[in-house]
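It is worth pausing here to work through a concrete case rather than discussing structure prediction in the abstract. The textbook approach is simple: state the sequence, then state the predicted structure, then interpret. We follow exactly that order.
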Amino acid sequence: MAFLLGCEKAEVDFPTKTVFSDISLGVDEGDRIGIVGRNGDGKSTLLRLLAGLVEPDEGRVLTTRGTRVGILGQADALADDATVREAILGDMPDYQWAKDGRIKSVLAGLVADIPGDRLVGTLSGGQRRRVDLARLLVGEWDVLMLDEPTNHLDIRAITWLAGYLKTMWRKGQGALLVVTHDRWFLDEVCTSMWEVHHGKVEPFEGGFSAYILQRVERERLANLAEQKRQNQLRRELAWLSRGARARATKPKFHVATAQALIADVPPLRDELALKRMAMARLGKDVVELKGVTVAFGAHKVLDDVSWIIGPGDRYGIVGGNGVGKTTLLRTLQGALEPTRGRVKIGKTVRFAVLSQHLDELTKLGDDRVRQVISRYSRRTMLDGKEMTPAQVLEKLGFSKADLNEPVCDLSGGQKRRLALMLILLDEPNVLILDEPGNDLDTDMLAAVEDLLDGWPGTLLLVTHDRYLMERVTDHQFAILDGKVRHLPRGVEEYLELAERAEVAGALPAGFVTAQEQAADEVAGKAEALAAAAGEATPSAPKLSGGEIRTLKKLMASNEKKTETLRGKIEAKQEEMTACDPSDYVALGALQGEIAALEEQIEALELEWLEAAEKLGE
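Step two, the predicted structure:
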């Protein structure tokens, strides 16, 4: 295997700490390396160091001459005034990309819902991320470095990306380094792992599952070594004169040994016991949907859905971005009235929601973590044990030093764990989690999963993290064409169903070659001549393929924007409810913001109707 790049005795110092100390690493052709570690330990810095974007304070970075390195950072450098097509393809001529199946696959896999003629400056953060990833993947690289590439991707896009990366190079060629908290993705793509911790980088063979087994074995050996050391110290105290300790060779890792360590570990969850406890708290009725339809204008998000959720059920909900997962959750809570049908909620049901944006922590402001937990005197029941708030926090990875931090200064992962703890202390019996794995490293994800295993209630989970979905829930359901469909075979079945429902390889609107554009213009002139000769019906002009694609994309985009704006209006209305009734200035300002949002919705709906009329729908 040919050496591509690496570093030798490198040290990286930041003003407040040493990130790396005396590390030597090498990346060879054929390497597929996953990089894991706690938040803040230097995973992103390691990528930037190897890519030559960070200079080491000591040591050196080595790169074989001619090696092409592509890197996806946490922030993009896309020009706001460029179109999506320009940002991805640059000035690449049509003949070059139009005949390249690889490039067309990237466009269809990552930006199928983003028109190519849209300006980058008008995109959401998630859309910009996908455009930047597509820009990188259409290039040709010897080494590809990806920092959190699965952020903002749904399960289908993540699965597509894993498949693409596995076939991007021939076997033994190219090299991939990826930083991600998506454990399924690591197992699927990587053949070796680097763990970043305490200024060092420790290599492991195999994907994420093999890495975990090796960590278990490493910790067992460390504990065994510590026991031997303590025994020897005791002997030295009893007998002051002893010979030198015998040399011990480092034992190799054996999978069979690690598997023996987990042979007596009980199942993750005692489902019957949890259901009995859930029924004691909830009774027999939780939530039932009967023929529920939710529509926004002419667009049906949910179509005649009937679904029963019982005590102790642990359901995962999957679906692409914008298909209606949030709408379904709000309908289940009774926060959104269905257009048709009925939602029956049990009398004893107490909902709790962990949202993506953690709005529930905003009101805590500068309060320190210890002040927040001091307001909760009662204990909560988890995994059959009563636990204090401090014990729950410790289980979620908070140290004693973290308790003195203001809530506003916590990292994203710490805020998410604190919000989860506060929710559990309120003792709900129906827990709704919307992307709870955001901002969490792999160890913290495992801690959250362990906590949820012992939670006795009904759990509804929305996430694009396939490992988290299948680890925490017992059954999965998909939203497809407005219906809620059970997936007996889990996420794999959803991917198969979604693939059948969509035409493979379809390009987004705005990505047409000059030849196709010319053909559309010729067809348009022919239609105009035919109309002038009385051979066409003026009231029903035919549209070109490009125009149809553009109109359909516009309609889909407006539907998503409208749903987002309605959510913002509801949030503003909740602010008005919580506002001081005598504060007329604040109330007036909020009402003005609501009116502006309603005007935007009206404009989007009008644009949607005009597009629908042109399509004859």
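Step three, interpretation. The longest strand covers residues 3-13. The first helix runs from residue 43 to 50.
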